[in-house]
Amino acid sequence: MSTITVTPIATYRTEDKYPFCPGCGHSIILDRLNEAMIRLDMDPSQVVLVSDIGCVGLSDEYFTTSAFHGLHGRSSTYATGIKLANPELDVIVLMGDGGTGIGGTHLLSAARRNIGITVIVMNNLNFGMTGGQHSVTTPEAGVTPTTPLGNLEHPLDIVATVGVNGAAYAYRGSSFDKDIADRLVEAIEKPGFALLDIWDLCTAYYIRANKFTRAGMEEDMRSWGLEPGLLYERDVVEYADGYRRIHADLAGKPPPTPRPIPVTHEHHLDRPMSIVVAGSAGGKIRSAVKSVAFGAIKSGLWAAQRDDFPVTVKAGHSVSQLWLSPEPMPLRTVTRPDVLLIISGDGFAKAGPYLERMTAEDLVITIPDYAELDTDAKVVVFDPKAATERIPKTSMGLVYTTIAMTMVDPFPLDALRDVCSAGSFAEVNLQAMNTGLELAG
Amino acid sequence: MTTSARAYEYIDGATAIVRGALDAGCTFFAGYPITPASAILMQMTNELPKVGGVAMQGEDEIASIGMCIGAAMAGAKAMTASSAPGLSLYSENIGLAIMGEVPLVIVHMQRLGPATGGATTVAQGDVQFVRWGTGGGYPVIVLAPSTVPESYALTVKAFELAERFRLPVFVVSDKELGMTLSAVDVADYPAVEPVERPTRTSGLPHAFDQPGKVSPIRQYGEGDPFRVTGSTHDEGAYITKLPEKVAALNEHLIAKIEDHLDELEFVDADLDAGAKTLVISYGVSAGASRAAVEQSRDGGTPTSMLVVHSLWPVPERALAEAMEGIERVIVPELNMGLYRREIERIAGDRDVLGVNRIDGELITLEEIVDTFS
User: Do A125 and A238 fall within a single domain?
Assistant: First the structure.
């Protein structure tokens, strides 16, 4: 038997020197990442470094893994998509405190979801690429070109933000810590969302304008209430994994296909007919009109239904326009309906333009409140109180559309009855239909 | 009366878009709730797990399109759906998808704007916004269905084009087209085969040296490592400022569309010999337009009709052909003439009249017919 010797990859770095300023901590952090990847013997084709914008956004070109260099603050969204589409990949986000600020909601959401990505925040307390402006982590009183008299904002506790909101792993340290590579190994291996907030020195700007040094960094952190160390660690279900698990039973089920409605009756129309039902939201107007449309289609008619309603679905008006036609028609609005049903005050408020255009050939069906309508159309009033059984609000639509169908008769009522008899609301719908027939006499 | 031999289902445009996406092989969707696009998010949530895909509700539209871009580069066919407030947030990532040559389908359900506008109110005010919705002015493809079967067919087409050209392709619909239920003869849906994504497992992620041609896409996890970047880059996706390389990239992003304009013209031309009037419309306004043209013909006046399915690039050849012999062009649309300007620049000396509404109501048949006399 021969022994196969596997030589681990010696480095994930390209031969190019980093582009960062002398003394910048970014180079140190990236070397620690390289060390961690070597230790984990990662397959470079299965690693995606997702870099953000700013100095840190230059990082990914110096590695031999795959990379995605996206837009400012959005790195964790791309990382999320990559991980969800291919959960086998190791996805590592490289971002700064700038990206943390502009993309705060994305980091927070990735943490809450526990997407299995590792986020390294290279936190140098300012915008190093654009001139040293203050960031969300600039300490209070910190002097930057945009806070020349001292920063008045409270610095963001990145670790606590993701940590208290579900992150599996959240660590704060500095580029000078000896154990950064160890922590990176842990973070990459940890199922769920892992974040390392690693502070480093911006030698171009922040440390020139403020008393901030390697020696005092830990003490400064503590004085600002930002303890270093591994502050949050918990076992979680990684999101991509959890998503696939809870959907396992759905896998392989057929996606939707067109299901034609069987034609079982013969219609009575020789030209298109338009019906408008003007009522109140919550009155099941759209459902009632849909039932009529189904009855029409079951009778061989073509139908189209255009609904108008406010954003609040259970209050205000609900107006449905319905076209029935022996032949298909292009989608268009009803301006002068053949039949208008006004069955509530909300509906009446929307009926004006229709009433104005309707003529003596047209029919209005309404409740006693609107018996004296100003219109040329024929007005027929039905009193809901005349019904043997009290009509619930949710049945008003179907009661009055049934009345309309008895009067204009575009297709057999049996077709409507078939529709009403099907489904979980059969009892209520049949009762409404019977009430409609009773009122229509 | 005789019963119809047609086999109808009762369906809205949003559902047809979802079916189109699934039949085109969509495996990833991310979106943020917004009327009138929410139905797509909810249906994709239920449907994608059946085909082994993933649907996400993002924390906002920026995250939603960002996830789609990431997923697309990791092997998924991705789609998102929103309306103008969401398209506003998509803006920067539309640019990233153009720059990174990321295939992506963006469904845009128009509602009345600006700002929050009318959530449940129809409009067609975004036909220029979708074209110019990100910096740089580089081309995208915008398809506009005007019926339920077209909503299905053009969504399938959008995936095909997004894969072929590696860029964001828009399907522009609206509140009425998306939410109006209508009887559709199931025979009116075209049979489709999902287009295989052309991929490769090694080599550079981009090719700029073959004019008008797009390199097969690289996907994360398959073959050698590769890069994607939103910065100006060379064929290896390494950031560059070298003018010849910058020019090669940017000219490629334009040429890959402009060299194929003939293949990107999609219209429904219903031309009438001897017509002096041509109605050009798109989307929901095509409904009343078709009805008005029908009425005019029934009255004995030859009248031509053209429904634009590919709003961008503007189908200039088809439009010019349809205008031959035409004296007057009528352009009904639910804005104050946003697409009419594209017609006007092709129309020469012809009269070009708009029929326009911005009150949240649909253009009526009568309003269009009135312009014929």
Answer: yes
| CB-based contact A86 B221, cutoff 8 Å | yes
CATH code for B8-188?
3.40.50.970
C-alpha count within 13 angstroms, C-beta hemisphere, residue A303: 29
Give Cα separations from B13 to A38, A306, B6, B10, B172 (angstroms). Answer: 52, 12, 19, 10, 11
Based on the domain organization, do A309 and A235 belong to the same domain? no
Residues B18, B234: Cα–Cα separation, whole Å? 36
The CATH class for the domain spanning B268-370 reads alpha beta
What is the nearest CA distance from B210 to chain A, expressed in angstroms?
24
Where exactly are the structural domains of chain B? 8-188, 268-370
What is the nearest CA distance from A12 to chain B, expressed in angstroms? 11
Structure tokens at A333: 């609005």
* Contact (CB, 8 A) for B56 and B64: yes
Q: How far is B202 from chain A (nearest CA, A)?
A: 11
> Is A205 in contact with A147 (CB distance < 8 Å)?
no
Among A217, A185, A348, CA closest to A276 = A348
- The answer to whether A250 contacts B182, with C-beta atoms less than 8 Å apart, is no
pLDDT in tens, chain A (441 residues): 567 777 778 999 999 999 999 999 999 999 999 999 999 999 999 999 999 999 999 999 999 999 999 999 999 999 999 999 999 999 999 999 999 999 999 999 999 999 999 999 999 999 999 999 999 999 999 999 999 999 999 999 999 999 999 999 999 999 999 999 999 999 999 999 999 999 999 999 999 999 888 888 888 899 999 999 999 999 999 999 999 999 999 999 998 889 999 999 999 999 999 999 999 999 999 999 999 999 999 999 999 999 998 887 788 999 999 999 999 999 999 999 999 999 999 999 999 999 999 999 999 999 999 999 999 999 999 999 999 999 999 999 999 999 999 999 999 999 999 999 998 999 999 999 999 999 999
A74 contacts B62? CB cut-off 8 A:
yes
Classify the C-alpha dihedral A361-A366-A370-A372 as positive or negative.
Answer: positive
Domain membership of residue A368 (yes or no) is: yes
Q: Where are the alpha helices (DSSP H) in B227-371?
A: 243-258, 285-298, 316-322, 340-347, 365-370
Q: Are residues A152 and A293 in the same domain?
A: no
Q: Which of A68, A294, A306 is nearest residue B70 as measured by Cβ atoms? A: A68
Report the alpha-carbon distance of residue B159 to residue B224 in Å, rounded. Answer: 26
For B87, phi and psi rounded to 5 degrees?
-60, -35
Same domain, A213 and A283: no
CATH number at residue A232: 3.40.50.970
Token digits for A212?
């901030």
Residue for token pair 């920067």: B92
Which one of B61, B228, B281, B294 would you mutate to disrupt binding with A, by most A Cβ within 10 Å of its Cβ?
B228
Q: Are A202 and A125 contacting, i.e. CB atoms less than 8 angstroms apart?
A: yes
* Last residue of one domain, picked from the residues A231, A246, A261: A246
Q: How far is CA A175 from CA A123, A157, A178, A230, in A?
A: 9, 17, 8, 15
Whole-number pLDDT of residue A330 = 95
Q: What is the DSSP letter of A32?
A: H
Tell me the chain B residues in contact with residue A257 when contact means C-beta distances shorter than 8 Å: 19
Decide if the complex's ipTM is over 0.95.
yes
Q: Are B50 and A255 in contact (CB under 8 A)?
A: yes
AA letter at A222:
R
Position B211, amino acid: P
Please write the tens of the pLDDT for every residue from A52-97. 999 999 999 999 999 999 999 999 999 999 999 999 999 999 999 9
DSSP code at position A252 = T
Where do the DSSP E strands lie in B145-266?
168-174, 181-185, 227-229
